[in-house]
Amino acid sequence: MIAINRTAIVRMPGQAFLDWLHRVDPTSGGLSLEDFRREPTVCLLPECGNEEEARGHLEEVRGGVFREQLTGWYRVPSLWPSRRDLDAFDRWFERSFHSVVAALRAAPLLQEEI
Hints:
This protein has four helices and five strands.
């Protein structure tokens, strides 16, 4: 294994996100938190020494992360929540930080803008 100098944040929509989605999109009524948990998103932050430092990095990018998640589920920005600060992020998403990130094989890491 090869250690990668990043901190991973594993995140998935939480109950507040699901409640909002059910309100704005009637076709989402069959979705549950279990559906969201099947495929969480893993994002890489700069290497962090503790969760407080990781939260600081998350504060810098949370607007983009919020927009990406909202766009992925409902593309009408006028119906998105207006408050998308870190406190709202904490209510809308379940997440965990991981300081050990390892590649299992020595293959090149590709970068692609999404």
